[in-house]
Design brief:
202 residues; mainly alpha
Length: 202
């Protein structure tokens, strides 16, 4: 099944909300693909049935010409070189935009639980307690660790680093939460997109 032929003359209008930056150089492409996939992974840890929601959002935003079905979505996410099922291929600009838009829209729908988790994290840190002592945080972190362990390749050095330390993996999950909350703002989608290219932390 091929996902290479998006309709050129029916390019989704919503893609124009993000500026066109060339995905130049392998290092830039690798960073973009990893970051987008990890943000989607964090959303999956927050929301049951997230994959179906990603597809429903793609349809709602008229992005189904780019992300046609579950298989296409999976293949796009497997361009993350950390994945067990890594596909050695770079995202096109339109595909990267589509994934960022979907991630940002889902994050906006999850604003309340994201904020609640971040408030809980701050409360636990203020008390000097482990963050996973909080029941809501513990559930999110457990889901994220489970997804990460099952989908990422332990032979990759950075993946092995996270897998060797539950605390570091928890910190990764929490850092993604902090980034997701910025996606919920008025210009959050644009900030997320720009951060993929300038290397800044959003």
């Amino acid at each position: 099944m091929s996902d290479s032929n998006s309709s050129v003359d029916a390019k989704p209008e919503i893609l124009n909300v993000l500026p066109d930056f060339p995905i130049g150089g392998q290092q830039t492409a690798v960073r973009i693909q990893q970051k987008i996939d990890l943000m989607l992974l964090a959303i999956e840890a927050l929301e049951l049935g997230a994959s179906e929601q990603f597809l429903a959002t793609a349809k709602q935003l008229e992005l189904q010409g780019i992300i046609k079905n579950r298989i296409v979505l999976w293949r796009l996410r497997c361009t993350n070189s950390w994945r067990r099922s890594y596909i050695r291929n770079n995202l096109t600009l339109d595909r990267a935009k589509a994934l960022v838009i979907i991630a940002s829209y889902r994050a906006k729908q999850l604003t309340v639980p994201i904020r609640n988790l971040l408030i809980a994290e701050q409360q636990m840190r203020d008390k000097g307690l482990p963050v996973d002592n909080h029941f809501m945080l513990s559930e999110y972190l457990e889901q994220f660790r489970s997804h990460f362990r099952s989908r990422m390749n332990p032979r990759r050095a950075k993946v092995a680093f996270y897998l060797s330390s539950e605390d570091e993996l928890n910190e990764l999950a929490l850092s993604l939460l902090h980034q997701l909350i910025f996606c919920t703002g008025t210009t959050g989608m644009q900030r997320f997109w720009i951060s993929l290219f300038d290397g800044e932390v959003i």
